[in-house]
């Protein structure tokens, strides 16, 4: 399928088939794909937690407002978090990045202050979301990106010490009657001239 056809076919799933689990080989591929996600200066300021365990998934579902039912029905939940301990992050880049990248960080990112540094790190995690959603679609999986989660509760439940959860993605196979699938609810987007210009 072309990438355009995938973009037309993927959608945010609102109801999952609770009886259909994603095979472990596909979960392993998604882990490998996330690890390869690009980031500014290859900074990789992130942590991805995959949850297939039903008990833990339902604990997180209970901290997910209106998303609770779909998380319980979905096969897996993936939690995306950004580094929020700047000192630890700087140790990591010091060990793993070439001098040019470290210099870029110290000359252009660090002087902007801790709030902007954290915002820059979060931007990298959002980029990995786009990568992940596209990969899942290509693998024939349905998904739902969700910012509607209690991030501090998630952090406690998952015991994350140096990373702050930003959003989660439910993963699985759609319920045949999910009313949000494009065949029942046509995709809605701004018209092309409103968002794209060419010269
Ligand atoms: C960062 C982000 C957060 C979102 N949060 C939620 C959410 O909490 N619950 C939900 O059902 N959909 C959520 N969505 C889905 C959007 O509403 C959806 O992507 C948008 O309406 C476009 O529809 P489509 O994904 O079906 O093409 C989120 C999407 C993104 C990218």
Can you describe this structure?
The protein is globular, with a radius of gyration of 18 Å. With 199 residues, it is of the alpha+beta class. The longest helix is centred in the middle third of the chain and has 25 residues, at 114-138. The two termini are 30 Å apart. The chain is 46% helix and 15% strand. A 4-stranded antiparallel beta sheet has the order 1-2-4-3, with helices on both faces. It has one domain (3-172): 3-Layer(aba) Sandwich (NADH Oxidase), CATH 3.40.109. Bound molecules: flavin mononucleotide. Flavin mononucleotide is lined by residues 11-12, 67, 144-148, 167, 187. Residues 11-12, 67, 144-148, 167, 187 line the site of flavin mononucleotide (FMN). One of its GO terms (molecular function) is oxidoreductase activity. Keywords: NADP, Oxidoreductase.
Number of domains: 1
Total strands: the figure is 4
Strand order across the largest sheet: 1-2-4-3
Query: What is the third-level CATH name, the topology?
Result: NADH Oxidase
Protein name: NAD(P)H-dependent oxidoreductase
Keywords: NADP, Oxidoreductase
Family: Belongs to the nitroreductase family.
Domain Nitroreductase: 8-173
Quick structural gist:
The protein is an alpha+beta fold and 199 residues long. It is 46% helix and 15% strand.
Write the layout of secondary structure elements.
Layout: H1 3-9, H2 24-35, E1 46-51, H3 54-61, H4 68-73, E2 76-83, H5 86-96, H6 99-109, H7 114-138, E3 142-146, H8 151-158, E4 163-172, H9 192-195
Antiparallel strand pairs: 1-2, 2-4, 3-4
Features:
single chain, 199 residues, alpha+beta, NADH Oxidase, 4-stranded antiparallel sheet, 9 helices, binds flavin mononucleotide, oxidoreductase, NfsB-like
């Amino acid at each position: 399928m072309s990438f355009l056809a995938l973009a037309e076919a993927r959608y945010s799933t609102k109801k999952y088939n609770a009886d259909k689990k994603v095979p472990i080989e596909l979960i392993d591929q998604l882990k490998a794909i996330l690890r390869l996600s690009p980031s500014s200066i290859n900074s990789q300021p992130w942590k991805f937690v995959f949850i297939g365990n039903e008990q833990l998934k339902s604990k997180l579902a209970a901290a997910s407002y209106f998303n609770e039912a779909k998380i319980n029905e979905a096969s897996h939940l993936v939690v995306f978090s950004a580094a929020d301990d700047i000192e630890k992050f700087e140790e990591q880049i010091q060990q793993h990045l070439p001098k040019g990248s470290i210099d870029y960080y110290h000359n252009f990112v660090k002087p902007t202050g801790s709030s902007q540094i954290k915002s820059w790190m979060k931007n990298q995690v959002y980029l990995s979301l786009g990568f992940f959603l596209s990969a899942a679609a290509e693998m024939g999986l349905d998904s739902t990106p969700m910012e509607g989660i209690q991030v501090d509760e998630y952090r406690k439940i998952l015991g994350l010490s140096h990373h702050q959860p930003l959003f989660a993605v439910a993963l699985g196979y759609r319920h045949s009657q999910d009313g949000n699938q494009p065949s029942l609810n046509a995709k809605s987007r701004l018209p092309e001239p409103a968002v794209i210009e060419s010269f």
